[in-house]
């Protein structure tokens, strides 16, 4: 099938030659697309202080630009999260890469808040299209190893979000600090588009029937089976909290971290912004099991995020780094286990739809709390707002740890 016939949800009219890739190659390609799109979506994190100075925008403007990405991503997950179940995983990923290219180029040429937000929105659309498709593709490629499918999903997503700020900070040292990183990223996306286009894809999950095939792409009301409902809400809640922390790290935290370490180096602030997410990504390689792993991970996250806030008042870079790393490990372990739980309970035919719904709630954590943080920073200052924010996140993690512990004890 060609990309065009997949988008039409029709069989190709003639046999098509192509790259009949191995399972390993397909795994790498699915993960690489998600990783690269998320790197691009987070290249700007260490650049926000520079963009504020160049464009004359406030902290609230930064959070608006950041939230534009998240809200567009959430909208796509709600409206089109199930598309790859019908047009196929490859076609959805091709669309995601093309939209991601457009978003990066718009952001690179932005000279006002409106263009920044437009670029961010296109990046959000791209990540939204790729999220369900990549996750479902990885699960289909590893049907007998669902836990590793979840590990690869979270490794590629968390890894991409973590690498973005660090790569953005390094590339910003080149001429054209606020545009060159996005031009280089666009070149990488073009390189990824070649194997994706040549790949001999499997047919769509549900081939279209009748004269109006596109009706299956209409938005659907989210629904979860009774068996998966408890796991779904726990995973969504943990995801919401996790991404509230990540959203803080990727939007206003670079300026906050620069004060703590007494440095204005963009590579340094980019590295600090990605520490928590990097630790979360690497934690996917740890073999942590046991009944109490989820509550323990949430407890570690809660204590650690409060210590991140305390690092500023103590002016302790060491505490900031240590707490950021431990927060990432605790979050990564807890989210992987609850994510794997809900993924294992969802029927294969609705995997992309349900996982996309989990991510809808998860990504809202990067928008709603962060906008509130931006508003608070406008009135009481970034330092005080960040301190209050970390305390609230710590309390929320503690509550979720208690809920998770009660579920474990109830199961005996």
TrEMBL record:
The UniProt record lists the Major facilitator superfamily (MFS) profile domain at 24-410
Q: Does the keyword Cytoplasm apply?
A: no
Query: Where does the record place it?
Result: Cell membrane
Sorted alphabetically, which keywords does the UniProt record give? Cell membrane, Membrane, Transmembrane, Transmembrane helix, Transport
Parts of the chain that traverse the membrane: 27-48, 60-80, 92-110, 122-142, 154-174, 180-199, 230-256, 268-286, 293-312, 318-339, 360-380, 386-405
How does it sit in the bilayer?
Multi-pass membrane protein
What's the protein name? MFS transporter
Native species of this protein? Answer: Arthrobacter gyeryongensis
């Amino acid at each position: 099938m060609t990309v065009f016939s997949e988008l039409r949800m029709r069989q190709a009219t003639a046999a098509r030659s192509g790259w009949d890739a191995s399972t390993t190659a397909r795994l790498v390609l699915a993960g690489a697309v998600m990783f690269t799109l998320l790197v691009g979506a987070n290249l700007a994190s260490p650049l926000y202080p520079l963009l504020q100075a160049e464009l004359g925008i406030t902290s609230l403007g930064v959070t608006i630009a950041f939230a534009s990405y998240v809200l567009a991503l959430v909208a796509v997950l709600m409206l089109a999260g199930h598309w790859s179940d019908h047009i196929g995983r490859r076609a959805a990923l091709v669309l995601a890469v093309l939209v991601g290219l457009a978003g990066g180029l718009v952001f690179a040429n932005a000279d006002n808040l409106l263009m920044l937000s437009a670029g961010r929105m296109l990046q959000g659309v791209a990540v939204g299209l790729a999220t369900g498709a990549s996750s479902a593709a990885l699960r289909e490629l590893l049907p007998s190893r669902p836990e590793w499918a979840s590990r690869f999903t979270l490794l590629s997503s968390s890894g991409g979000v973590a690498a973005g700020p660090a790569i953005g900070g390094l590339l910003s040292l080149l001429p054209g600090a606020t545009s060159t990183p996005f031009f280089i990223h666009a070149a990488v996306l073009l390189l990824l588009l070649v194997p994706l286009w040549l790949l001999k894809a499997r047919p769509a999950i549900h081939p279209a029937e009748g004269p109006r095939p596109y009706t299956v792409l209409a938005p659907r009301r989210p629904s979860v089976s009774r068996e998966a409902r408890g796991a779904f809400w726990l995973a969504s809640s943990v995801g919401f909290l996790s991404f509230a922390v990540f959203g803080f790290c990727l939007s206003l935290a670079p300026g906050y971290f620069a004060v703590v370490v007494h440095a204005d180096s963009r590579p340094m602030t980019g590295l600090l912004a990605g520490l928590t997410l990097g630790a979360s990504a690497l934690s996917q390689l740890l073999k942590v099991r046991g009944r109490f792993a989820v509550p323990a991970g949430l407890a570690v996250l809660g204590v650690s995020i409060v210590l991140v806030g305390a690092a500023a008042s103590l002016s302790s870079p060491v505490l900031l780094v240590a707490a950021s790393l431990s927060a990432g490990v605790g979050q990564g372990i807890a989210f992987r286990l609850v994510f794997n739980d809900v993924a294992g309970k969802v029927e294969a035919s609705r995997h992309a739809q349900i996982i996309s719904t989990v991510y809808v709630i998860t990504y809202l954590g990067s928008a709603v709390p962060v906008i509130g943080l931006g508003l608070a920073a406008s009135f009481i200052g970034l330092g005080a707002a960040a301190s209050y924010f970390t305390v609230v996140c710590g309390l929320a993690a503690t509550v979720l740890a208690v809920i998770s512990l009660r579920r474990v004890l109830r199961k005996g």
